[in-house]
Specification:
Helices cover 23% and strands 23% of the residues. It is α/β, with parallel strands linked by helices. The strands form 9 sheets. Strands 3-2-1-7-22 form a 5-stranded parallel sheet, with helices on one face. Strands 9-16-10-11-12 form a 5-stranded parallel sheet, covered by helices on one side.
Length: 452
């Protein structure tokens, strides 16, 4: 029938059918969160605008997520719990060659490797501007509920925090990027509620001056515990670092003393697991955070065990029950820019049909915790991230991590573990020829530059 039409009408109909067909094939992806993971997600997805439409829901008024510092330890501008755990003088625990996305590594404002949190935030803003990402972000938007519908779509219920207006979105896929350094984890310690000194979680720590000439006990000797302890040692009378791990053998400040774990509290006394007692003015709990997804409906098929083990997830990020939902950036503590970078590329390949998932049974088997692994270690990775990256890159036929970045990552981990007090003063750089160098300052005890 169409062959007997006027050629101009025929051409118009064909164009309409073509446009309509493309619209039908276009996938809509909703991204929850505008921090590190959210920004790389929308960047990777927006590169495929021919068949992917993206929208980012960010509850704050600007991008940055965890790196958006605030003096407040209570609520944000919308009356919601403060998201950021960044403290005033924080410098990144990783060097900027690893605290950036491989597709944009331009840091401005500081020449040193371990930069201030303000510099990381500025990098994220520059990244956003460079790739014109603001057009996809809906700020001041709170995600109330995410559910899976009978027609195999996602329903995202949101609230405009300025207008107090609710709105629903239907999506083909959901990318969860709400971060995991906001909901504090605190162990149950008998008598802690009756401690006569000051108690706070590291999430609420902001300024060291508040602890001048005090005796402080810090519970936990991971990244935040050691970092906050070292900062406080310049102000406090004594800092006790309480933990159950192997004793830290690298140099610590003279007034920073390692002690066993705290098992109970009695007044001003903190009771250690070998029976001795420490009197303290303040007790800072640095025991980490819980994965928290209060907006997930049961229909999403996701369970969070003990706040630490999100399952069932294939490769630590793909919802096995509904693979059009992914959780970006769960593996910790290492390389929070590299992991989202490869995960989002892999997910784009899945949406485009380029990458293929294995059978459900195989994915479920892969997602199970190895025997003897506690839930707290479910998504723990450090050097293992490099193999994880290569695994995803190979499966989706994506460019693997460069040898230079791999060497830089291994050198960083080794240097950090050997010298927790001074490693941030070192420079870790990748030269134009791919050569990686660890350069110590001229006044360092060890004055050797290591080249790799």
């Amino acid at each position: 029938m169409i062959s007997h039409m006027n050629p101009k009408v025929q051409l118009l109909l064909l164009l309409i059918v073509g446009v309509y067909g493309k619209a039908q094939l276009k996938k809509k992806v909703c991204i929850i969160g505008g921090g590190v993971s959210g920004l790389i997600s929308v960047k990777q997805l927006s590169r495929n605008l021919n068949n992917i439409e993206t929208i980012v829901f960010e509850q704050a008024s600007d991008i940055g997520g965890q790196w958006k510092y605030t003096d407040s330890t209570d609520v944000d501008e919308h009356g919601l719990p403060v998201h950021s755990s960044v403290y005033k003088n924080l410098r990144a625990n990783g060097p900027k060659v690893l605290m950036s996305f491989p597709d944009y590594q331009e840091f401005h404002g500081e020449n040193r490797s371990y930069v201030k949190h303000e510099t990381v935030l500025e990098y994220l803003k520059n990244y956003t501007a460079h790739f014109n990402l603001r057009q996809y972000i809906k700020f001041d938007t709170f995600v109330k509920k995410v559910s899976y519908t009978d027609d195999k779509k996602w329903r995202v219920e949101t609230q405009d925090l300025n207008l107090d207006k609710s709105e629903d979105y239907t999506c083909d896929a959901v990318v969860v990027c709400n971060g995991h350094f906001t909901r504090p984890y605190s162990p149950i310690i008998p008598g802690l509620s009756n401690f006569t000194g000051r108690t706070l979680h590291s999430h609420l720590y902001r300024k060291p001056e508040e602890f001048t000439n005090k005796t402080i006990v810090i519970l936990g000797a991971s990244y935040s515990g050691i970092d906050i302890g070292i900062e406080l040692s310049n102000f406090a009378k004594t800092v006790y670092l309480s933990h159950r791990h192997s004793r830290i053998t690298s140099e610590l400040p003279e007034n920073m003393i390692q002690i066993p774990g705290v098992v109970a509290v009695n007044g001003t006394d903190l009771i250690l697991n070998e029976g001795s007692r420490i009197k303290a003015d303040a007790f800072i709990i640095c025991t980490g955070y819980l994965y928290d997804y209060p907006f997930l409906d049961e229909s999403t098929g996701i369970t969070v065990t003990k706040g630490k083990y999100v399952h069932p997830l294939y490769k630590h990020f793909i919802n096995i029950n509904h693979p059009t939902m992914v959780f970006v950036g769960l593996p910790h503590p290492g390389f929070p820019f590299l992991v989202p970078y490869i995960q989002t590329q892999y997910f784009v390949s899945l949406l485009r049909g380029k990458a293929k998932l294995p059978a459900r049974a195989e994915m479920l088997k892969e997602s199970q915790l190895p025997p003897g692994t506690p839930a707290t270690k479910a998504h723990f990775m450090e050097e293992e991230v490099l193999d994880y990256y290569d695994d995803l890159a190979k499966a989706a036929d994506i460019e693997p991590l460069s040898d230079s970045l791999k060497r830089a990552a291994l050198i960083y981990v080794d240097d950090k573990n050997k010298d927790v007090l001074h490693f941030k003063e070192n420079e870790l750089i990748i030269r134009g020829d791919g050569h990686v160098a660890l350069i110590r300052p001229s006044n360092a005890t060890t004055k050797i530059d290591y080249g790799y």
